[in-house]
Amino acid sequence: MPPETDHSQPVTIACIQFEPKIGEVDANLDAIEIRVRQARANGAQLIVLPELADSGYVFDSAEELAQLAQPIPDGQSAQRLIALATELEVYIVSGLAEVAGATFYNSAMLCGPEGYIGTYRKMHLWYRENLFFEKGDLGLPVFATPLGKIGIAICYDGWFPETFRQLAMKGAEVICVPTNWVPMPDQDPQAEVMSNILHKAAAHSNGLFIACADRVGTERGQPFIGQSLIIDATGWPLAGPASREDDDILYATITPADVSTKRHLNEFNDILGDRRSDVYG
C-alpha cells in the first residue's frame, strides 16, 4: 500500500542545477550526493535533479550509452540515490539513463525514505535522443507520497500541453521536471527562454506546482541554458530562474493541497472545471 498522503502540510522543494560530465558516472553521483546533502541541510524535503544526471547527455554512440545505462531500481545509480534518500529521509527525483533488457530509456526515478517508488520514461524524444532511446512506455504515472501527489515530465515533454493536462486530470499536484534545456531556434539570448514561458503557462493553465531542474555547461559542443525554476500553481515563479552558466540550488516552499484553491480564479471560473469536454474530450 502507498503511504498516506497529507496534502495540507508545507513542502520545501529544491531544484539542483549542476554540470554532469559525460561518461563519468561515479563523479556525477559524487557531485549529486554533495548537493543533495546540502539541500537537505537547508530544509529540502523534495529534491529534483537534471535529466540524465548520472551519465551526461551527448552520447557518441549506442555502444557508449550501453556502457553507461543501468537498470532501475537495481543499477548502481538508482541504488545510490535510494540509499541517500533513505538515509536523509528525503524524496529525490533524478533523470537516469535506463536499460531494460536490450532497450534504453531516458528515464527519471522517484525514491524516498521508504525506498524506490517509481519510474517515468520520457515520452517525447528530442533530436538525437531518437538514435539511442525508445519512447517511454509507462504513460504518465502519478505517485502518491506523504508530501502529496507527484508527477514527472522530462525536458521536451514540456512542449506538449497534453503532458500537464493529463497529469492534472490524474490528480497530480506537483510536477518534477528533470531537464537538459538547449537554446531554441531564433531565441534571443537576452530574452526570457521559451522553456520557462511554456512551463509557467502549463502551471497556470492546469493549476500545478512545477519544479524544473536544468543542467549547465557545454558538452561535446552542445550548450545548455540553465535557468532552472520553481513555479507556483498560479503560474508565477516562486524561485528562479537560476543562473544561465553556474551551479545553483533553488528552494521554494509550497502546500500541495493549495492547487484546489488556486484553480478557482473567481466565483465563476475554475481552470479544470471549465473544460468543455463535450466539445474536445
Automatic annotation (TrEMBL):
Keywords: Hydrolase. Pfam families: CN_hydrolase. Residues 11-256 form the CN hydrolase domain. PROSITE patterns: CN_HYDROLASE. Gene3D superfamilies: Carbon-nitrogen hydrolase (3.60.110.10). GO terms for molecular function: hydrolase activity, acting on carbon-nitrogen (but not peptide) bonds, in linear amides. This is Hydratase. It comes from Antarcticimicrobium sediminis.
